[in-house]
């Protein structure tokens, strides 16, 4: 998605050799009009599938999933929680996910009442680095007896191997921008 690459170059910032800061439009402040374009692009890339649910992980993926849902006919957006809130009193599916950015490991959880056997699920997230969050979400879907129809990432850091891991595992992955490397403050796309 050329518009996304342009926006990353214009408004993003490379930090070191592994971090792309896009908090001005994607994951701290959201450019809603641009997020609508991202939703349209995910629908274009996944034009051949119909889904029952869109799954993401809190918090950065929620806006992306909600802006994409209308283009799929408004399926529910389910988001995995990184902690167990006191309001989650029912059984849940859980999987371990490591956050590259935060350097933490969490058990992400989805209440069993929101993922069902036979559900057709599209997984969406803001970043794909090592693939840990995406793989954990696929585990939640599999625990429910549902099916992952695709995984979408707004930005894939191709040099960190998560995309390759997901593709090798047989998942359909669509990344809107794939970064090949970050070198001396410069972002290079595939």
UniProtKB/TrEMBL annotation:
GO terms for biological process: purine ribonucleoside salvage; xanthine metabolic process; XMP salvage. It is found in: Cytoplasm. It comes from the Bacteria. Xanthine binds at residues 27, 157. Its EC number is 2.4.2.22. One of its GO terms (cellular component) is cytoplasm. Residues 43-158 form the Phosphoribosyltransferase domain. GO terms for molecular function: xanthine phosphoribosyltransferase activity. It catalyses: XMP + diphosphate = xanthine + 5-phospho-alpha-D-ribose 1-diphosphate. Pfam families: Pribosyltran. Keywords: Cytoplasm, Glycosyltransferase, Purine salvage, Transferase. Pathway: Purine metabolism; XMP biosynthesis via salvage pathway; XMP from xanthine: step 1/1. InterPro entries: PRTase-like, PRTase_dom, Pur/Pyrimidine_PRTase, Xanthine_PRibTrfase. 5-phospho-alpha-D-ribose 1-diphosphate binds at residues 129-133. Homodimer. Belongs to the purine/pyrimidine phosphoribosyltransferase family. Xpt subfamily. Converts the preformed base xanthine, a product of nucleic acid breakdown, to xanthosine 5'-monophosphate (XMP), so it can be reused for RNA or DNA synthesis. PANTHER family: HYPOXANTHINE/GUANINE PHOSPHORIBOSYLTRANSFERASE, XANTHINE PHOSPHORIBOSYLTRANSFERASE. This is Xanthine phosphoribosyltransferase. It comes from Hominibacterium faecale.
